[in-house]
Amino acid sequence: MPVAGSATRAPAGPGRTGPEADLERYADRAVAEALEAGLERDDLEAVLRGRLATELVPPHPGEDHGAYADRAVSELLVLYIARYDDGPIG
Question: What's the pLDDT tens digit per position in 11-23?
């Protein structure tokens, strides 16, 4: 299955425009970076629980997609670790 912002959804299509499509592109980039950083798909899905990465880690106004992905991966990894320290999250 393609990497997507919710780890289970198909990525935003290249022809889509508007705020929702842009949020999906932020989310898609964050998920791709998280998987590249070594987070397993199942673990990422457990953190996201069907939500877009942007629902847990909203992008800052004007934030570059790459900068957002770096920040989001850090925050998603913290949430992943917290699952084992404090129980279920979200």
Answer: 555 566 688 899 9
